[in-house]
TrEMBL record:
Biological role: Allows the formation of correctly charged Asn-tRNA(Asn) or Gln-tRNA(Gln) through the transamidation of misacylated Asp-tRNA(Asn) or Glu-tRNA(Gln) in organisms which lack either or both of asparaginyl-tRNA or glutaminyl-tRNA synthetases. The reaction takes place in the presence of glutamine and ATP through an activated phospho-Asp-tRNA(Asn) or phospho-Glu-tRNA(Gln).
Biological processes annotated in GO: glutaminyl-tRNAGln biosynthesis via transamidation; translation
The protein's assembly and partners: Heterotrimer of A, B and C subunits.
Superkingdom to which the source organism belongs: Bacteria
Catalytic activity: L-aspartyl-tRNA(Asn) + L-glutamine + ATP + H2O = L-asparaginyl-tRNA(Asn) + L-glutamate + ADP + phosphate + 2 H(+); L-glutamyl-tRNA(Gln) + L-glutamine + ATP + H2O = L-glutaminyl-tRNA(Gln) + L-glutamate + ADP + phosphate + H(+)
Entry protein name: Aspartyl/glutamyl-tRNA(Asn/Gln) amidotransferase subunit B
Record-listed E.C. numbers: 6.3.5.-
Gene3D superfamilies associated with the record: 1.10.10.410, GatB domain, N-terminal subdomain
Family note: Belongs to the GatB/GatE family. GatB subfamily.
Residues in Asn/Gln amidotransferase domain copies: 327-490
Keyword entries, A-Z: ATP-binding, Ligase, Nucleotide-binding, Protein biosynthesis
Length: 492
């Protein structure tokens, strides 16, 4: 029997505000427990919440970025449940009238493009944190996180594989950072995903019973959790069992999910409008103000890269998958480098080095200006592409070389930095036609058999002769000139 997996995501995105959603407490990460919990956060009698305007602006920005409906009026509700790290006994959230309505996000999985429907995105406060491993035989409660502003982004059950779910989560993760509403730090809990997984017989329109995998803060773990949960559900059904709706946790050490509790329904929370908060009214002026703060969005930038720089769809998509990479590319091109070589180096040599060093483009010792200066030396024939890769490695390994590039005015002259390394390594390319011709004459005289093979129609002999000429020049001869002069001499 063939089965189909059905997946929907609920993503808790911590908004990039200075204070909490209903109080003036700081949301800075890493403070001593319970030092950032005000009277409002710990629900002392008589306190009243005051809505953070910046959190609302973040929600509007997100709605605009995914072409969603922005509700002119939305309502805050009390979501009632008991848990030790929820001091009020309820969470302030939104239910029937969320601030952001239906929208969409398009993902790419292999060669397939797919649109994932976003059902809603609502504002809410985070709960505190239970510390189970810090006290022997006891659980500690840290309320620093209580009241932290969240935007919960909910999709339709549109994904049909772990790969699609991860692609969506990655695209959303990059988008919220791109529009600067979230720092995206998954290790600190700024971006957490709950994944609803169910299976059904292929071809069926009826949804299966779902289980919700809670608090996944790693794309790798998300992939593993979905794949395990899918296998478990299929095996359970094929063995004659039934799936019970439940909330489950993923254990990275075992690679397995385990049931935590039965899954609550909306009516279990006894939602009702919060009497302490007025309805949230959003005007056209509010939306216009938020839109002014939005940067050029990834899809628009991708289209611009294709039209303005004549890049392929693949290159443009790769460069705009991250705002930091896109900004880096723009800076390299702005320094006077052709778009295609810039794209090739950023997606190739630079990306490989960043991955190997497990760092980011923001922390790369090769700045956009430094890479641009290196690529300009390739373009003007000073060094070959292969020599440039050696220079790149030297610059990466010795960022202090930049000190030698200080110009007379005390600023950095990137071309001086690159020149210093080229000179130190003896990599200046030979472009003198006479010198190259002399090298080729020696190579032809020493390789008469290869010359005869070429004249007999064996093209590989030509490449071998080029290799001999480059070897004789110790890699310094301009490859284009070597090819041109060699061909003239062989066909004369």
């Amino acid at each position: 029997m063939e089965w189909e997996v059905v997946i929907g995501l609920e993503t808790h995105t911590q908004l990039k505000t200075k204070s909490k959603i209903f109080s003036g407490s700081s949301i800075a990460f890493g403070a001593e427990p319970n030092t950032q919990a005000s009277a409002v956060d710990i629900a002392l009698p008589g306190v009243l919440p005051v809505l953070n305007k910046e959190a609302v602006k973040c929600a509007i920005k997100f709605g605009l970025a995914v072409n969603a409906e922005i509700a002119p009026r939305s309502v805050f509700n009390r979501k009632n449940y008991f848990y030790p790290d929820l001091p009020k006994g309820y969470q302030i959230s939104q239910f029937e009238l969320p601030v952001v309505g239906k929208g969409s996000l398009t993902i790419q999985v292999g060669d397939t493009e797919k649109t994932i429907r976003i059902t809603r995105a609502h504002l809410e406060e985070d709960a505190g944190k239970s510390l189970h491993g810090d006290f022997e035989g006891m659980t500690g409660i840290d309320l620093n996180r209580a009241g932290t502003p969240l935007l919960e982004i909910v999709t339709e059950p549109d994904m049909r594989s772990a790969a699609e779910a991860v692609a969506y989560a990655k695209k959303l993760h990059e988008l919220v950072q791109w529009i600067d509403i979230c720092d995206g730090n998954m290790q600190e809990g700024s971006f957490r995903c709950d994944v609803n997984v169910s299976v059904r017989k292929k071809g069926s329109d009826k949804l299966g019973t779902r289980r919700e995998i809670k608090n996944l803060n790693s794309f790798k773990f998300m992939q593993q959790a979905i794949e395990y949960e899918t296998r478990w559900q299929i095996e359970t059904l094929e063995d004659g069992g039934t799936i019970q709706q439940a909330t489950v946790l993923f254990n990275p050490d075992t690679g397995e999910t385990r049931s935590m509790r039965s899954k609550e329904e909306a009516n279990d929370y006894r939602y009702f409008p919060d009497p302490d908060l007025l309805p949230l009214d959003i005007t056209e002026a509010d939306k216009a103000a938020a839109e002014l703060e939005l940067p050029e969005l990834p899809e628009a930038m991708k289209a611009r890269f294709e039209s303005e720089y004549q890049l392929s769809s693949y290159d443009a998509a790769t460069l705009t998958a991250s705002k930091s990479v896109a900004d880096y590319f723009i800076a390299v091109v702005a320094a006077g480098v052709e778009a295609k070589p810039a794209a090739n180096w950023i997606m190739g040599t630079l990306a490989a080095k960043i991955n190997a060093e497990d760092t980011t483009i923001e922390d790369s010792p090769i700045t956009a200006e430094l890479l641009a200066s290196l690529l300009q030396r390739i373009a003007d024939g000073s060094i070959s592409n292969n020599s440039a890769k050696l220079v790149f490695e030297r610059l990466w390994a010795s960022p202090d070389v930049r000190i030698k590039g200080v110009n007379a005015h005390g600023g950095l002259d990137w071309s001086l930095i690159v020149t210093d390394v080229i000179d130190a390594e003896g990599l200046v390319q030979v472009t003198d036609s006479g010198a190259i011709e002399a090298i080729i004459d020696e190579v032809l005289a020493a390789n008469a058999a290869m010359v005869e093979e070429f004249k007999a129609g064996k093209e590989k002999a030509f490449n071998a002769l080029v290799g001999q000429a480059m070897k004789a020049s110790k890699g310094k001869a301009n490859p284009g000139q070597v090819n041109e002069i060699l061909k003239k001499k062989l066909t004369a």
